[in-house]
Amino acid sequence: MSGTIEVKPAPAVPVLKQVGTPARIRRPSRWTEARRSFRRHWQLYLLIVVPLAYFVIFKYVPISNAVIAFKDYSPIKGPWGSDWVGFKNFELFFQNPVFWTLVKNTFLLAAYTVLASFPIPIILAIALNEIRTGFFKKTVQLVTYAPYFISTVVVVSMTILVLSPRIGFVDDAIGLFGIPAVDFLGDPNYFRHIYVWSDVWQTTGYSAVIYLAALAGIDPALHESAKIDGASRIKRILHVDLPGIMPTAVIILVLGVGNIMSIGFEKAFLFQNPLNLAQSEIIATYVYKTGLLNADFSMATAVGLFNSVINLFLLLGVNFAAKRITGSGLWS
Amino acid sequence: MTKEHVSTIAETRTDRIFLAGVKVMLTIALIAVLVPLVYVVANSFSSAGAVSAGQVFLWPVEPSLRAYQEALSDPQILRGYYNSLVYAIGGTLISVTLTIAIAYPLSRKTFFGRNVIMSLLLFTMLFSGGLIPTYLVVQDLGMLNTRWAMVIPSAIGVWQVIIARTFFRHTIPDDLYEAAVLDGASDLRFLWSIVLPLSKPVIAVIALMYAIFQWNTYFDALVYLKDPGLYPLQIVLRNILILNSTTGAAADVAATLERQQLANVLKYALIVISSLPVLIIYPFIARHFTKGVMVGAVKG
């Protein structure tokens, strides 16, 4: 909705008089406004053609291609020409014994990730905010931020190397406490911990930056008056800082919970090995294997679609709840 | 004494203890992040034997540059490095151009339909067709197994469009446009000669975001590329580091053990070599990066 329609008193351009009924001449209709904008700013419309085509071709055509979830896809007939099979692919997937394992693995992995990677950056940001600007603060910030720029492949390999029983130092470290060497990557029970804590290692510094900015935006007068009233540092954190970063935290949490089912393919796939598959197979990796390795396009699309739809509803639901409870959400 | 008592009302004992606790905590965080990084670097400069025996912790043992020589003379790795550079530079150019081409018109109040288009973009953040339907599009366009598959399907990020649009909206005043029009400038002329020079900071930010993303991602390559000659560095790294595919054939049985040991130290050297370009420039761009993220967050 362009709220600007009524603002301009519509300069009496000759164009207006030629168009349509004289009774509506006062205020240009949306259509006239569009035509005038086209004529005057045609270059802008020309400019936007290519990027717009990108979105249509690479985002909206795939959405229409997703009909093959309801079809028996044949490469010769194409997505729209293939034969309809209704919900057959979905039924097959729901009856498949892997279904619940996949849903459970995906959900637990994502929920654990959100639980760990939501509070820790907030703690880091508040801690950084407490100390005075100087060399130490800058160093901590710069170093904790750095892993964000390392690629997933490298983070996963580092984790594997560090945890490997022979070369890595983790086994030496726990050996000091008399704990025997553990094959972390061969045991499915360690998969989630490894995934989540390597994620925390990589993203905490980056995520903290957003909260640091929110903390910097808090009116210093609030802190001053709290100090005068004799509030301790802990009290000020609880009653000034935390409420101050609340809206930001809500948005981050909504995004995190809302995207719970779309947890990344890249990292889970890299950590996978035949030994830990029982817990590391998630929906995204299953889609990749079914679709591209087994070439079952329709089934893979059905599984992916199931995931996207759940994800969309989760996001909308969480956003709605957050708005009700705290008054701030994504589209506040 | 004088400095202190202007700003603070005497810190209480609890406050001082608390602050000390905070500092201890931050030091622990610092060490936790730093140790794996230093560990990798130390190993990469050690001898193959020491690495395989697990003797290296934070300082190189029997210092050696052998792993680096080996890595930098491996054609597969060099090829990957070259490909990644091509994708990062080419992809960034395409991405930045397209992002500006859509973000600028959307930032103009006189652009009819901007809200509809913006909603169309935002919707793609919430819902996507999925892996296979996108794959079919790339296939139909004949891009499979070509360099185009690396730079086109992920060319525009909605997040970057939001960042650029917000920047244009808040830093280019309407008066400026009107003045330019009076001087006879067209929309494109205004964009090229006035908006772009004024927007250097935001262009730098989104360019860096795209470049780092291109350098670090492997997903598109995994899905769309089959020809090893086109593989970006990350796929090569995955093959060597995670799938343990050895580079080059082992010459004879006697050399096998040595090769195996070398494979371990080679991994550390590869990690350093591949992450170095990004980690070197990162301290200089971190601040701008943060700013870019913030600008985007304003709109949300």
What does this structure look like?
The complex is a heterodimer of chains A (332) and B (300). With 332 residues, chain A is mainly α. Chain A has two domains: 1-40, no CATH class; 90-326, MetI-like fold (Orthogonal Bundle). Chain A has helices at residues 14-18, 30-40, 42-65, 78-81, 88-95, 98-117, 119-130, 135-145, 152-163, 170-175, 188-216, 220-228, 233-258, 265-271, 277-280, 283-293, 297-326, and strands spanning 71-72, 83-84. In chain A, helix 9 (152-163) runs parallel beside helix 14 (265-271). Chain A is flat. Residues 1-20 of chain A have low confidence and may be disordered. Chain B is an all-alpha fold. Chain B folds into two domains: 4-72 and 247-299, no CATH class; 75-234, MetI-like (MetI-like fold, Orthogonal Bundle). In chain B, helix 5 runs antiparallel to helix 12 (200-216). The longest helix of chain B has 47 residues, at 253-299. Chains A and B meet through helix 2, helix 3, helix 7, helix 8 and helix 9 of A and helix 2, helix 5, helix 6, helix 7 and helix 11 of B.
| First-to-last CA distance of chain B | 45 Å
SSE string of chain A, helices as H and strands as E: HHHEHEHHHHHHHHHHHHH
Q: How many individual domains of chain A?
A: 2
Going by helix content, strand content and strand pairing, the class of chain B is mainly alpha
Helix content of chain B: over 70%
CATH evolutionary superfamily of the largest domain in chain B: MetI-like
CATH structural class of the largest domain in chain A:
Mainly Alpha
